[in-house]
């Protein structure tokens, strides 16, 4: 299927690894020019090199790496000023940021809550605010926020993430149903379950430490709760993201798309 987005420009946050990398890869393989943003220079350079190696030599889309912390004003400014990038004229925006640490809410102070809100609610909103009007003026825009399955089924040790991501979800629910929908701009959330990423490995290690079990025992127990009996792969997450960004998904907006191997037990 031709997704109809070759030649457009995408900004993908957290693009050096994990789910952000999966999205950047899927879009680039569809011919989308991608600004790949991440905080770690070495990891980002390695991700860009690996992606360029998959693209047709001399004929692929443009890949522009930007080392930036998108949760800060300075980091976001670096995205708009990236040499070779489109300024703020992105057609596609994929937001994500590193999730806050797990733990017991009794251990968190005000600054912990503010950091979580800044990274996982306010920063995505700022990125949307900077790009969405241009999308609407051009008549095409796709915004996908990578949130978490915890939005639908909260995880007890991820209270900071539960709260911040749910706040973003509520904001998007209203914005997606504004006049933007009639102007060709869709806004959706992708809710990953358990994917084979550094973030999940850290969460499983925290659970192992708290329970006194080994990491292998915790991992095996987690897999029994997933009907697919495996962890998700970033590449398949990216494929769903790319479809949401395609011309074929123009009637799909304001939705929370859950990718969890069937783990969520609800009907709705």
Descriptive account of the structure:
The protein is an alpha/beta fold. It contains eight helices and seven strands; from the N terminus they run βαβαβαβαβαβαααβ. It has helices at about 20-30, 40-55, 75-80, 110-140, 160-175, 200-210, 215-225, 235-245, and strands at about 10, 35-40, 65, 90-95, 140-145, 185-190, 255-260. It has a seven-stranded parallel sheet, with helices on both faces. Helix 1 packs across helix 8, helix 4 runs parallel beside helix 5 and helix 6 packs across helix 7. The mean pLDDT is about 95.
Essential attributes:
268 residues; alpha/beta; seven-stranded parallel beta sheet; 7 strands; globular
Average pLDDT rating: 94
**Structural class determined from secondary elements:** alpha/beta
Label the overall shape. Answer: globular
Helix content bin = 40-55%
Element order: H for helix, E for strand? EHEHEHEHEHEHHHE
Strand order of the largest sheet: 3-2-1-4-5-6-7
Work out the strand percent.
Answer: 5-15%
Helix count, per DSSP?
8
Beginning-to-end CA distance, first to last residue:
29 Å
Rounded to an integer in angstroms, the radius of gyration calculated over CA atoms is: 18 Å
Main beta sheet: strand number and arrangement? 7 strands, parallel
> How many DSSP-defined strands?
7
Low-confidence stretches: none
Summarize the structure.
By secondary structure, this protein is α/β, with parallel strands linked by helices.
